[in-house]
Amino acid sequence: MVAEAPKAALAGIRVIDLTRILAGPYCTRLLADLGAEVIKIEPPEGDHVRRLAPLRDGESAYFGHLNCGKKSLAVDLRKEEGQEICRRLAAASDVVVENFRPGVARRLGIDYERLRPLNRGLVYGSISGYGQTGPGAERPAYAATLHAASGYDVTNLGYQDQQMKPGKTGIFVADVLTGALAASALQSALVYRARTGEGQYVDVAMMDAMLSLMIYDMQAVQFPAEKERHVYGPITAADGFLVVAPVTEANFTALAAAVGRPEWRDDPRFATSGARSRHWSELMALVEAWSQTRPAAECAAALDAAGCPAARYASLAEAMNDPQVAFRQSLATAADAVGSYRVMASPYKLSRTPPVTDPRVPRLGEHNRPVLQDVLGLTEKEIARLEDRGILSGS
């Protein structure tokens, strides 16, 4: 008789989540959506993001977005008894993820070398700014500093018109990208463990993640082109802006047909891909002469229908209410003590084991007793003693 397949890809996988702020919690949120049991170990005061806006009656929607579906265990890792709880949990788990500054986990006695003898199959992931070793490893880092240090901000500046300094940042690309790459790497290590029985150490750096974004640019630095390549940007419509991307010959033919200018296909300036790139500004000016008398949505719809990729510049609120977003169930619901709100759903779809977002946002220390009793077998008396000694909080 064939055993029934699990409904979740990571069902039965236990993750000890020692991460804070954004990159690490994003990684473990992805694992939770795939069915892993994620036990978030927080300091007695809670993850810093619990105190960040948007706040509703003291509850952070920012925190809930990243941590719904997890269990919260509030343990003071600065104390030996708290560290021992972490070690015992790691011995009974499949994955540990941390994003301390390099060296901190070792000082706390919860690094991979300390935990590996306790659990041969343990997959241990470290997320950091610059990696775990090397001359810059211990530099403090957040996404904004990695955007600058990696060359991303300066590279992007080179694509802007008449902008003299790098732009401000409020969307933390480095955090989300690194968290996603870490989740992928951890799952790869779990596949290896399934084949060999051996766990391993996973080291993911935000610097590496940011460098991986700039594929063309990295090659252009080494082999400068005679002429800068064209870039995609806004063209004016009657009520806003849109972007048009006629990348292939078929796209360009569709563009010419949509704007009623089929003769462009025979124009020497636009007849080939190379010619269009050299005369890109002229081409976009001609497209803009067509678009600026029409609503952006109408322009985008006409170009889409013809087969030329185009989009109106939408607000985030508009994108969240896009019918295609609703159809794909790209958003999910989280719920805390104050109420419910929309958050991201898993960004990928699996046909046999579809990710599911558990809406419950844990209160600080909400799962102290269930985790310590069920996983470690502690008694009520032992848990009460840990509370009295300040090892546990929030339960």
Write down the overall geometry: elongated
Number of helices: 18
Distance between the termini: 44 Å
Q: How many strands appear in the DSSP assignment?
A: 13
Percentage of β-strand residues? 5-15%
Overall pLDDT confidence: 96
Topology:
Layout: E1 14-18, H1 23-33, E2 37-42, E3 55-56, E4 59-60, H2 61-67, E5 71-74, H3 80-91, E6 95-98, H4 104-107, H5 112-115, E7 123-128, H6 143-149, H7 152-157, H8 173-196, E8 200-205, H9 206-213, H10 215-222, E9 235-237, E10 240-244, H11 249-258, H12 273-278, H13 280-291, H14 296-306, E11 310-312, H15 316-320, H16 323-327, E12 331-335, E13 340-344, H17 368-374, H18 380-388
Parallel strand pairs: 1-2, 1-6, 2-5, 6-7, 7-8
Antiparallel strand pairs: 3-4, 9-10, 10-11, 12-13
Question: What would you say this structure looks like, in words?
Answer:
This protein has 395 residues and is of the alpha/beta class. 39% of the residues lie in helices and 14% in strands. It contains 18 helices and 13 strands. A six-stranded parallel sheet has the order 5-2-1-6-7-8, with helices on both faces. Helix 11 crosses helix 14 (296-306). The protein is elongated and about 85 Å long.
How would you sum up this structure in a few lines?
Helix content is 39%, strand content 14%.
Features:
39% helix; 3-stranded antiparallel β-sheet; alpha/beta; 395 residues; 18 helices; elongated
